[in-house]
Amino acid sequence: MIKRIEGIVIRSFDYGEGNKIIRLLTEQGKVTLMAKGAKKVKSRHGAVSQLFTQADFVFYQSGEMGTLNAGETIHSFHAIRSDLLKSAYASYLTELVDRMMEDNEASQAIYQQLLAALTAIESDKDPELIIHAFELKMLHLAGYTPVFSHCVHCGQQEKGLPAFSPSLGGMLCPDCLQQDAYRLAMNEKTLKILALLQRLDLRRLGETKVSAQTRKEMKASMNAFIDTHIQLKLKSRSFLEQMEKYGFHES
């Protein structure tokens, strides 16, 4: 059966001497295709088999893996692939999607938000805010939505929310801090930004100045929450951490 679908390449790897296997995110779910001859210099499949590429794909489906017949690029995102740091952030997004979504799990919203996130990274928007906003959307899809609006233990919010509990799933008020000995301190600015990112449509991302302390708290909180509830070992996250360790990151 011949099919046509719009998608974004979220994974691409070599197969044999001249072929590639590519995995797409589409609004209908993930699709895996064999792109025969895509590694060859003059291959007609070469451009649309590149990681992050958004394209219209025509393929023959006969089983779990389809065979790519043709593709027409919509947006190549070449500026991301040619920049090591942008590519590292974008790779984290695509690996997160690939690892967290089931093959047949359809989500028009996640497709549109991934496209918006890649567009924002290419446009030099703050990549740390982009990945945290996207993490929150993936967590919501998986059924693990952090609570930022009130104390996750008692429900009140009038006394302030000074700490985040990854294990309990949200903020703690001063009266409930003892509920989690491993809670993470979070200032009001960090809380407001995370709550905003949770609601944000990435297509409307603007420019926001964020302090180093707030960035540190956001990263610690999101990493701890994901590690506690999702437990994924992501190669792209390890690479980003190595880049930060050696001073190759956004200031």
TrEMBL record:
| Cited InterPro entries | ARFGAP/RecO, DNA_rep/recomb_RecO_N, NA-bd_OB-fold, RecO, RecO_C
What SUPFAM superfamilies would the database entry show?
ArfGap/RecO-like zinc finger (SSF57863), Nucleic acid-binding proteins (SSF50249)
> Which keywords, in A-to-Z order, does the entry hold?
DNA damage, DNA recombination, DNA repair
According to the entry, every stretch annotated as the DNA replication/recombination mediator RecO N-terminal domain falls at: 1-77
Q: Does the keyword Lipid metabolism apply?
A: no
| Cited Pfam families | RecO_C, RecO_N
Q: Which NCBIfam families match?
A: reco
Family per record: Belongs to the RecO family.
Function (record text):
Involved in DNA repair and RecF pathway recombination.
* Name used for this protein in its record: DNA repair protein RecO
